Amino acid sequence: xxxxxxxxxxxxxxxxxxxxxxxxxxxxxxxxxxxxxxxxxxxxxxxxxxxxxxxxxxxxxxxxxxxxxxxx
Length: 72
Known about the structure:
By secondary structure, the chain is an alpha+beta fold.
């Protein structure tokens, strides 16, 4: 998926053209109904509460979801 760094001080990740793509990705990954609000419990239920972003080259990044409290 194509993403860009946005907002003041580069504090946001967005998908250009249609920013809903990123929301759809995360909701699908968390098992949350599209259009529903994602809350902290959804993330805890998923079992991974951190994401690290690694820069692979000048245009490519890798998102690594950290292991949460349930060992997944």
